[in-house]
Amino acid sequence: MTTTQARTEADHAHGADPHAGHAAPAAAGQQGGHGPHGYSAQKDAHLKRLRRIEGQIRGLQRMVDEDVYCIDVLTQVSASTKALQSFALSLLEEHLRHCVAAAAEEGGAELDAKVAEATAAISRLLRS
Amino acid sequence: MTTTQARTEADHAHGADPHAGHAAPAAAGQQGGHGPHGYSAQKDAHLKRLRRIEGQIRGLQRMVDEDVYCIDVLTQVSASTKALQSFALSLLEEHLRHCVAAAAEEGGAELDAKVAEATAAISRLLRS
Amino acid sequence: MTTTQARTEADHAHGADPHAGHAAPAAAGQQGGHGPHGYSAQKDAHLKRLRRIEGQIRGLQRMVDEDVYCIDVLTQVSASTKALQSFALSLLEEHLRHCVAAAAEEGGAELDAKVAEATAAISRLLRS
Amino acid sequence: MTTTQARTEADHAHGADPHAGHAAPAAAGQQGGHGPHGYSAQKDAHLKRLRRIEGQIRGLQRMVDEDVYCIDVLTQVSASTKALQSFALSLLEEHLRHCVAAAAEEGGAELDAKVAEATAAISRLLRS
Q: Which of A18, A49, B49, C4 falls between 20 and 30 A from A90, CA-CA?
């Protein structure tokens, strides 16, 4: 099984990607070609996930348009919110693994700044 | 694959009732001017709000595609989640005003069932 | 089994109280003696639940004092937050059943005000 | 001290402790002597914060006992939940700064494990 296949399959799960850890060392080697940030290596998985969420939002529009029962619409909203949170967690995991870990090597002020920034992002997720 | 097929597939695995949409046109026929559910009267406002959220999700795809810094993507995810929660609250408010209030006039078991159903929906929103 | 026993047992579950609906008619009869609000009838169950949460918070203090591993402390924080949300949901369910339902009988502005007030409270729970 | 005064004090700062930041630099110098985990250096600040939350939970018991209006009880529940989340964030920030940063120096599997563990803890906070 190729790394690409592993990534695609991992993307099917809605929770944290259990294969991301194993794929990361290989992906890290290719990183220069993909972009400056940790999540670039999994760009395809992220885009696929976001397109699925976009489909859910369009599904919500159809439900409202067809006068589906309010509670059923709310259930679908909860599913979409959960999918967004799950996407955020996978982004955050990559960020911690790549950007925060890189800052840890710098140490001192650089690490403090990155950790404070990540914590603020987590705080915004908790409040939303 | 047609757009319709893509949408149908996108809707599948996410917990929304895939048949709800098919049942709705019949229900719409009984609707009179307003429809059976509380939120119909504000349908246009709801649809506008959902289209804006759809735009936010497409914006997220562009951000990922252009390797925008992880933390900035997370900020936009929080904004989209907040917009979804806000949509859910406006739906819920209408539901309480119309459906739960109507059940209150019936009283007894009917009211208990509606209140339990609304509470379960709120619980799902809190957990998502 | 007495009503009190039923209530106590229901309190063990952290989700919605499955017996609340059945207990309500009997409880309503005693309500004049308990206080003006919907939740008074289940005061004992609420107090017991809050004392358990207080115990969890004291448990957190012990964990911090004994230098327990951060992640284990965070797991206990999540459990306490969940218990608080669960308490809030049971309060909210009673509020909808009693106060909002009573307002529905008044109708008009009174109902609108109560529904707006409940929605604002739900919004605060979602944002916390 | 009257009950009212006790309540007012318990209620005061619902959010982050504004003094915690000032205590940190001094505490950092003493860290080796405090314990094995990142948060030990700020133990006093954490304990103070948790005692305040304990006071809020006791305040909730008084409110229920005195039949305070449901919506006002819910507002206080939201404040307590927010205070718990805020405590969790300060723990998490220290954990990232110390434990995850230390794992980054080990690199590879050790870093992956710590990042996965932290992400799982954040996920539990989001779902609670």
A: B49
